[in-house]
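Provenance

Sequences were taken from public entries as deposited. Structures were produced by running a predictor on each sequence independently, with no templates supplied. The record for Glucose-6-phosphate 1-dehydrogenase from Neotamlana sedimentorum is shown for reference.
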Amino acid sequence: MKSMDEQMLIIFGASGDLTKRKLIPALYDLHKGNFLPENFVVLGTSRSDLSDDDFRNRVVFNSEFLKDDAENSDATKAEFAKKLFYKDLGDGYDTDFTPLKERIHELNSKFKINHNFVFYFSLPPSIYETVAKNLAAVDLSVEGVGWKRLIVEKPFGYSLETAKELNIGLQKYFKESQIYRIDHYLGKETVQNLLVTRFSNTIFEPLWNRNYIRHVEITNAESVGVGNRGGYYDKSGALRDMFQNHLMQIVSIVAMEPPISDDPEEIRNEKVKALKSLRIMDDEETLFNHTIRGQYTSAIINGETVKGYREEEGVDPESTTETFAAIKFYIDNWRWKDVPFYVRTAKRMPTKVTEIVIHFKPSHHHIFKDQDFDTDNKLIIRIQPDEGILMKFGVKVPGQGFNVERANMDFYYSDLDEGNNIMEAYERLLLDAMQGDATLYARADEVEAAWAFVDPILKYWNESKSAIVHGYSAGVWGPLHADDLIEGRGFWRNPCKNLADEPSYCVLNIKNNGTENL
Ligand SMILES: NC(=O)C1=CN([C@@H]2O[C@H](COP(=O)(O)OP(=O)(O)OC[C@H]3O[C@@H](n4cnc5c(N)ncnc54)[C@H](OP(=O)(O)O)[C@@H]3O)[C@@H](O)[C@H]2O)C=CC1
Ligand SMILES: O=C1O[C@H](COP(=O)(O)O)[C@@H](O)[C@H](O)[C@H]1O
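Predicted structure for Glucose-6-phosphate 1-dehydrogenase:
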């Protein structure tokens, strides 16, 4: 493990959901795993009037999110809680941060922190710039004696324009090298392994291009609906919530050229080049033919009634926000010319799964007449769950003749000694930022390149009469119309929870309560 400086993590928005649900549990696990430096404290801050003990009770002792696996978990929690402090900011975030600075300096001296501070904005993005400005006003962004880093949460902007404004706003007060834009998919071990699969094996990289790859298919499916985040989601939709960030990050790693080293800037330079090569769709015909959006309607799934999106709390009953998005696109560069990418993301699908399927071209000359597309080679990279990699290839069916059927070659993370102990994304990302490693964080130009691709789609969906919102019954693989998108390439691979299971094994018992016509 890399060495780590003594430091303080200052969380803005510490009274909120993310702090309790993700950040503190990640820090607790890092504490249990002895990953935190000896001199380390967390200072939570927000407008809520809490004492140190109130904060500790809220996020540690009374939290349902800490994993209680240790025998002496009470002692472990008490030891961890000693590192947590809280400072009430008063009525708002646009205020003089001098009292906050005094508390930071008091803890800095007491715990010998050496002025190394990580600021975490777990806040609505609309106030990021204000908070950055107020930190800078009391010199808390200034490096020299100790370093200063800033982690910002998603969503990073609402459009290309707002993302640019946010970048400019933050860069007035913090240098780009100090800013860490979190994308929790980059914290997933399996996403990082994409780099290793591609660039540490001689068997894949020579084939990873238009000469051998027929198309690339990426599915991100969730079985849940919007839950209690309807208010946020209804203003966001699947394209902003998942596609612009997490899926564009995955696409950039699948498509990038080999970096010259594992230096963060080298990797991010290549990712941004891939994102800048995305063919922007700006004519109505292409947008109509290459994009599909949908919204789930109510259904009875395995005997239980599931609400339609428009009945969810916080959602406009006439909402046209998409809970399903499927996009076909091209990457205009030497490697990917004419190779279509099909990417979809959705809520209320039959199962929770994220996977990348590399569909290789059929052999140039078909010697065996019974070989069809189904026996073409596929490399399936499973991001979650049942994490692993599966290669489908043709083998001879024993017996007379040369009949070909599919066989699997597979690898599962659970087979590795470390495989059942994979770090949670937030643990990994916090640890990296604490060590000053920005490889798994998105750079300003990456975020803007992804928005440049997504913006015209959003504009088309919002403004054009031809942009229909298709209904789909909760529990199915999206609108039927989505099959038209991939037509000519076979079908979407509608995967099961288990990587090796054939898609047809995993069908839910659904009675459609609602309607597919919105
Ligand atoms: N929760 C999650 O699972 C995820 C969250 N995120 C992102 O993380 C960030 C924090 O999310 P989350 O904790 O869920 O958000 P919350 O809505 O719980 O807000 C966090 C804190 O910000 C303060 N706050 C909320 N609204 C305002 C406002 N209008 N003006 C000023 N302060 C406000 C509140 O603190 P107080 O009133 O005490 O000052 C609140 O406790 C957001 O950017 C979100 O998009 C990203 C991925 C997942
Ligand atoms: O960022 C988000 O991600 C989650 C899905 O994350 P996963 O790690 O469970 O795949 C999604 O539910 C949420 O809507 C989105 O904001």
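Residues 184, 222, 241-242 surround LXAUTJHC (ligand 2) (CB under 6 Å).
The longest strand covers residues 213-221.
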